[in-house]
Amino acid sequence: PRTPPRKQSHRTNNETTMCRPSQNPIKPPLRLLLTQESFNATLPAKDDSNKLLQHSPYRYGLGGPDSMSTMLTVSIKVLLLFTLEHVVRLIIQKVSHIDPILHVERNRHILARHLAVDFGSLAICGFIAVKNRHTVCGELITHMKSWGKSDSMSDEETERRVFTYHPASQQMMVWFFAYQVKNMYDTIYWNDGIEFVIHHIFAGAAAWGGMFPGCCHFYALFYFGFSELSTAILCLLANFDDQFGVVGLEKVFPKTKIVLGALFVSSFIVCRCIMWPFVTHHFFKDTKKALASTHPLAASRKNFLHLLRFCCFGLSLIQFFFVAMIIQTGKEELAKLMS
Question: Nearest 5°: CA angle at 184, between 41 and 194?
């Protein structure tokens, strides 16, 4: 018997392609991230169709803007810091009649760096942290206010604290990473020392890793925001340092140095001596549980969690060195005032 003719299909190539499951996920458009709203999550928390979050953590992080848009924004912010530094340098030159010490070009460069780049960047990070403190880490603040007596930091919420995306934290880490890029350039240009180079590498790596693969946004507000408020004041105080600042500036503005010194010591005690141990205790506790977690986002972030714990441990040890240095410097300054 003759075989009946095969029925012809009228499906077009486009229709056939549309019926097949997508082999390549649609790439998000390249865009500048200029507002906090631009950092809102672009990927769903659960993406069963192509599992972008699980398969591409170094491109998509925890679901916010992708790494390409982030790098574009970082580049623009670094250029902005260069521009702002130059503008401040010109302003200082315009008011250099205040004192001959401002006639020296090197002094104007040092002041512009510490004012525009260092203080400006850290002040922005601190502002973002203060503004979003209740929406991101409200339970941590509540627990801190109760001196650890509240139940707001329960163990059942560990995975949420470690693996939840927060737009404010992502925005702050973009600023902090851009600052570390500019800071690295300045450190090499001014020959600050290898210890500063190492610090900027670890600080930048922690900020970038917090975005890609992404984790611990809950704690990012403190480590890249609140704790840097004391550092922002220190950057202003550094202008009076004989090694990294302007020699003789303290003779021109003696009261300013005293006020900044008092503000720095006060903020350091609050941010680094009181808040830091409390937050770090919960950070190590949560990250330890996260390393043993079966959460779908845990496996691709375990190496970075180990790196974060190592960096946090090292920075915590440095706090003791800073305390000793502050005490020694305080004694020297007090002796100067008494004499």
Answer: 130
